[in-house]
Structures are given as structure tokens and as C-alpha cells.
Queue: 3 jobs
Job 1
Amino acid sequence: MPVNDHMNAEKVLIHDIDELKTKLGKVIIVSLIVHVFKQALVIHADQPVDLIMISVVVLLLAVSLYLTEKMSACARCDTQTKKLLSNLEGE
């Protein structure tokens, strides 16, 4: 198996329900981002407030992606720590 296929397969594997929820949440957020940008292309900003509202929405989406990634990284660290501890206890 080539290295790239192995790396892609690792991204798809789900080991527990929390990992499934995290990945599903990321998919939902990305689909919201796509929808927001599609709508942003057809919105006519007549007032400066309209532009501010669009930028607030984009900022909130960016923050949600950032927080989701931080939570995912924290969950991965917890999973790795649990595996390491269980390996140490088994020895």
C-alpha cells in the first residue's frame, strides 16, 4: 500500500463515538461555510451594515472551525495518552 493511501485511510478510520461526532461536526461546518459563501455571492450589500454582518458571519465560521480543530486535537491527545497508559499497565 502506498504511503499516501495509508495516510488517507487513517483519516477515514473512526475508533470511537466521540471521533465520529467530531468528524461529522466538521463536515456540517464545512457545508455551512460553502452555503454561506454561495449566498454571499448573490447578496447585494446596499448598506455598510450589510458588509459588517457578512464579515461577522465569516468570522464566526472561522472561529467555529478553529475551535473544532482544537477540540479534535485535544481528543486525539487524550486517546493517545489512554493508549500509552494501557500499554504501560499491561507490561
Job 2
Amino acid sequence: MPETTIATEDAEPEEDETEGGESEEIVFKPRVVAPAEGVPIFYTNIAQVIVSPWDFTYRFALVDEAAGKTIARLQLAVIHSPPQAKAFLNLLQRQLESYEKRFGTIPDIGEVVLKGRAD
């Protein structure tokens, strides 16, 4: 399974070799570059996942509590096939583990919300 599910024009294929010298699989490791000019970047503070037999849809929104109303404004939706969703989950899990090793345990969102309201 490739390390990432993203391939770019700049990706360099690498072949893993077995002991007999046979190639096992080609892994694409894309070069990370800054976003192209004009590519939107969104901050979101709530997410929703919708699942069907054919795809996973992630909806990212920004909760706005202005004027006494709580409104979640959709910022971005991303759709993955089930295999892409699983690869994304694995990638996110590895990144979270790496983050927590470096910076410490991330509290559950419930702990953060409850602590914020108790102050």
C-alpha cells in the first residue's frame, strides 16, 4: 500500500526490492509544495462525515454564534471512495501519533469544551 494516496507530476516512483532483486511495488512519494496562488484555505471547527456504499463525504464547517444564534456555515466538502477514506484514516492516525509524541496528548474535544465552560 502506498504511503500516501496523492500523486503529483513531481512524484518520483521508488521501487522496493525483495531479496531476489525482484520489484515488489512502486511507492509514490509526492513532493510537498506550497498551495498554488488562489487555492482557498479554510479554517473549520466542526466536521461531519456522511457515508454511503460508494463514498465517504466529509463536510467541514465553521460554527458562528453571532446574534444569539448558532449557525454552522459549510466551508468545504471532500468526497472519497471507501479505499481512499481508509488510506486517509491511516495517514491521519500516523500524523496524530507523531504529533502526540512530539507535543503531548491531545485532549478529547469534550474535555476542552467542558473545561472552557467551567472557567
Job 3
Amino acid sequence: MVGEEGQKLGAGQTGEIVARSAMSLGDYWGAPERTAQSFFPGDWFRPYDIGYLDEDSFLYYFGRPQKIPPQGPPSCDARRRGRPIAS
């Protein structure tokens, strides 16, 4: 969880959810500007989701802010949106 300036937030403080792992994407193909917007220093990926961690490190998800960078064309067929990928 980080604040508006990328600073680490404590338990119970609402902020932006960030993630870092070997499975995080490296970059957006052909979109260097989007790649630059989507990472904080230290390779922390920002999916533009808002939430907080409680004292036991459980994540509570609130949603997305009103203004986020353009996401580009949909990555899945419109008929599949809102449906599970697998059951």
C-alpha cells in the first residue's frame, strides 16, 4: 500500500495497491509511456486499485479511482466480460 507520492502506508491507511514479483509484467509492448506510468521505483507495479491492509495484512479492495490512464482496447471478447474465465 502506498500513498499519492509512493510512500509506504501503515495498517488501516487507504492507498494504492502495488505489487512486485517475478510474475509481474516487464512492460507494455509498444507502449513505453504506459509502462512508465504503471511502475513506481523499485519495479512496484501499480494496477490502479485502491484498498488497505488491516493489522493482520489482509487486503481490503475498494475499487479504482475515477481518473486512471487510458487502458487501450479491451483484452477480451465483450461477450465474456463479467463471466468467469473458468468454473
